[in-house]
């Protein structure tokens, strides 16, 4: 629980009893992985309906934002495990009343840690649940922007690894580009999750901006509008990053095809170069009785010379055409 003066009080599960009272100056209650019993207890203490984990998971996109008995219920999807190879989206419930903000989550997005660390600096500006949720959304959006900046850096690194310079292209180990495809796929997954999160946050802030609680708090309303504009800018930036990743993916696949075509071309040219010598050897390998060349004194070296010449001429012809 966080009070308007910035004091934080963490209650252990065994400390949650019916005798526990919520101070009047509490503006934020954060529930992390609560059990069903704890959900029921919080409902009795706060006198509001608290969605369970199953309800939060199964909630339809059209029912993520609604008002019930003067209480605003909102659900957003936040990026989680952004630094890992398997980023995920986790649903977080935001319940806003005239008195406080209640958040329910079953994961630990880094944005919550950052916001808690900054509470001492912004405590005086969070004297209500409305101000608290807008400030929390600002931190979540800032964290999302940081994820996109990291994605840009990763995309630049992958671009250098895929294209590089001409000196390093011939020294690539086998399956080098195939390994880059795995990294590009992971980066695409991260950006896709971030875009989904931004869409969810955009819908939430649009709904929050029209809430009656925000109409009486001019500062929070202006900050909500600013954060909404930031989300729009980040969404456009995420689309730009996604298009760059798509280009990088297509370019990698194109380079892989070029390498494979080069190998096939070498085999094709080799077969064409060796075809005339094979033809000559086949002719003089036939078992006919009357073949005048077989009894000539220099038939054998002449046939070998003819094979070499018939192989050299196509080779230099391909070099002249630029096919080699």
What this model shows, in words?
The chain is an alpha+beta fold and about 325 residues long. The chain folds into 2 domains: about 260 residues, Beta Polymerase, domain 2 (2-Layer Sandwich); about 60 residues, Methane Monooxygenase Hydroxylase, Chain G, domain 1, CATH 1.20.58. Helix content is about 60%, strand content about 10%. It has a 6-stranded mixed sheet with strand order 1-2-6-5-4-3. Strand 4 and strand 5 form a beta hairpin. About 25% of the residues are buried.
Key structural traits:
324 residues; alpha+beta; Beta Polymerase, domain 2; 2 domains; six-stranded mixed beta sheet; 6 strands
Q: Total domains, how many?
A: 2
Strand content: 5-15%
Secondary-structure content class: alpha+beta
Overall body shape: rod-shaped
Quickly name the level 1 CATH class of the largest domain: Alpha Beta
From N to C, what is the helix and strand string?
Answer: EEHHEEEEHHHHHHHH
Q: Overall mean pLDDT score?
A: 82
Low-confidence stretches: none
Assembly status = single chain
Q: What is the tally of beta strands?
A: 6
**Cross-sheet strand order for the largest sheet:** 1-2-6-5-4-3
* CATH fold type of the largest domain: Beta Polymerase, domain 2
Individual helix count: 10
Rg result: 34 Å
CATH superfamily name of the largest domain?
Answer: CorA soluble domain-like
What level of helicity do the residues show? 55-70%
CATH architecture level-2 label of the largest domain: 2-Layer Sandwich
Characterize the main sheet.
6 strands, mixed
Distance between the termini: 73 Å
């Amino acid at each position: 629980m966080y009070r308007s003066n910035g004091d934080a009080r963490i209650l252990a599960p065994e400390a949650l009893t019916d005798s526990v009272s919520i101070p009047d100056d509490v503006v934020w209650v954060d529930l992390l992985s609560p059990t069903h019993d704890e959900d029921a207890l919080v409902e009795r203490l706060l006198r509001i309906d608290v969605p369970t984990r199953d309800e939060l998971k199964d909630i339809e996109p059209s029912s993520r934002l609604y008002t019930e008995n003067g209480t605003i219920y909102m659900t957003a999807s936040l990026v989680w495990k952004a630094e890992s190879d398997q980023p995920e989206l986790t649903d977080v419930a935001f319940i806003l009343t005239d008195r406080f903000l209640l958040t329910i989550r079953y994961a630990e997005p880094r944005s919550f840690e950052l916001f808690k660390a900054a509470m001492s600096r912004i405590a005086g500006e969070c004297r209500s649940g409305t101000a608290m949720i807008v400030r929390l959304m600002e931190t979540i959006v800032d964290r999302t922007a940081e994820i996109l900046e990291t994605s840009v850096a990763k995309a630049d690194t992958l671009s250098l690894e895929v294209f590089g310079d001409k000196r390093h292209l011939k020294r690539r180990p086998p399956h080098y580009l195939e390994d880059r495809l795995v990294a590009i796929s992971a980066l695409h997954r991260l950006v896709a999750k971030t875009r989904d999160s931004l869409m969810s946050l955009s819908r939430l802030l649009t709904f929050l901006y029209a809430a009656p609680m925000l109409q009486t708090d001019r500062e929070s309303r202006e900050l909500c509008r600013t954060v909404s504009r930031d989300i729009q800018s980040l969404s456009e930036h995420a689309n730009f990053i996604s298009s760059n990743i798509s280009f990088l993916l297509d370019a990698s696949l194109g380079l892989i095809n070029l390498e494979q075509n080069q190998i096939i071309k070498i085999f094709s040219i080799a077969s064409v170069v060796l075809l005339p010598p094979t033809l000559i050897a086949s002719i003089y390998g036939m078992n006919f009785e009357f073949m005048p060349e077989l009894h000539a004194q220099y038939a054998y070296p002449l046939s070998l010379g003819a094979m070499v010449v018939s192989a050299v001429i196509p080779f230099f012809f391909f070099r002249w055409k630029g096919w080699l």
